[in-house]
Every structure is written in C-alpha cells, then in structure tokens.
Amino acid sequence: MSRIESTFNNLKEKKKKALVAYLVVGDPDLETTLDLMELMVSKGADILELGISFSDPMAEGPTIQHAHERALENKTTLSDALDLVIQFRKKDTTTPLVFMGYMNPFEAMGAENFCSRASESGLDGILLVDMPPEESQNFTKATFNNNLDLIRLIAPTTDEERIKNICTDASGYIYYISVKGVTGANNFDPLEVKNKVNTIQSITDLPVVVGFGIKDADSVASVKHLSDGIVVGSALVSIIAEGKHQISDKISKKIEELSSALLK
Predict the structure, then answer these.
(1) Is the pLDDT score of 190 beyond 90?
(2) pLDDT score of 183
(3) Distance, CA of 207 to CA of 166 (rounded, Å)
(4) Entry pTM
(5) What share of the chain is helix, strand, coil (3-state, %, to 5)?
(6) Section 10-28 average pLDDT
(7) What is the mean pLDDT of residues 150-174?
(8) Is 212 within 8 Å of 188 (Cβ atoms)?
(9) d(CA 246, CA 254)
(10) Is the pLDDT of residue 184 over 50?
(11) In angstroms, rounded to a whole number, what is the distance separating the alpha carbons of residues 205 and 173?
C-alpha cells in the first residue's frame, strides 16, 4: 500500500479530512524549504505538494508565479527537488510527498529516468498541470513501473465523459479545481463544488481533494464536508514571500488554523 493510500485510509478511519499543504521548492531557498516541510507536518499537514519551478506556470496566480520566479533565480532544479526529498526522508518516512509542476522539466529529464530517481528518493506521486491523458503515455507507464501515483486534475468545466477518461489511469487522489481561474482565486461556489465532487466520486473510488481559493478557516468550513481533503497553497506561499523574519511562527499559526478548522 502506498503512503498516499495509507494516509487517506487512516484519516477515513478517524473520520478526518486531509490537509494538503503546498510550497515551492527553493523559495526562498532549499534549506528553508526543508525546514518548512518538517514544520508543516508537525503542525498538522497530512500531505505535502512540492511545486517545481517553471518559467511559465500558467495555472498559477501572481503569488505562486512569483514564488516560481524566486526559485528559478536561485537556480533550483528538478534534481535539487529530488535531493530535498532524500533529505526529508531521513527524518520522515510516512508523510506523502507529491511533486506538482509542468511537463517541460520532467520531460527534459525523461519519464523513466525521473520516475526511477523519484521512487528511489522517496517521492510518492506527481501531478503535472499541463499533461493531459492523451499526452502522458510515457509518464503513465513509468509511474506505474516505479510505484508512483499519477495524480490528475479535474476542472469545473470538465464534463462527465472526460472525467471518466481522466480517472482511468489516475492514482493516489483526484485534485478538483474549485474555481474557473488560477491559484489564489477566491470566488468558488460551495454548491457547485459539491455537485462536481459528487459526480467525480460516482466515477472513481479515489479520494478527491479540493484546491484553489482555500486560504483560511472560513473557506475551509465552506468546503470541508464536500470532499476527502483540501489543498492550501497561495495562503502559505504568500507568508513565505514576506521574508524569513518570523516565517516559522506565521506558517505554524496558519497550518494550525487550517488543521483546526478541518476538525470542527
């Protein structure tokens, strides 16, 4: 059983929802990224999504775009991110880690080469934003061969037939985008989210997490009963963008706020 499957099973037994926390590798630097990963887990994050910097992160709002830019200025590479996973696994062998990024850096490394290295490092899954099923045969095969989960995105505009196609080769969990926009948007409709998540859950047994627009206790409260978990990214990345001064305290408070809201 994979770490992702085990985590969702354990949470389900406890009647809890997953808190998936996102940050960009190398923002503001690799050492801080590692420290924040460990801190987020200690404060209640169940799964970590690690953003891999790219020059054209088209699905991201300004907050995460700037984080990608800062990581690129630090010359952070995909290999650096894999090394970071190795460092994290020296202390934590249970928390699932997922790389979230765009196809270009992964294709440059090669599907089989990347997936082999990722599996050896202790990574659990990948989510490539701009990789539709039709263009992902190599990664579908390579992830399966290396026991990695291939996590898929589903948008509000995705119709039922397309959802079936997307879920066919997905594993780990489904990431439902709660708004028609970029990361950090805050105009999601809970009723629309509920209806779409119900549709997805009628098609697949995979857990469904909801992301985009979830940033505080109030937004958590409006969607926590609708899915198997939530993803928070921009709210955390914006704290990191403020600089290293008191960053740990602020991240701690935010993760505790979100985690507590999931339990209420």
Answers:
(1) no
(2) 47
(3) 14
(4) 0.95
(5) 50, 15, 35
(6) 97
(7) 95
(8) yes
(9) 12
(10) no
(11) 9
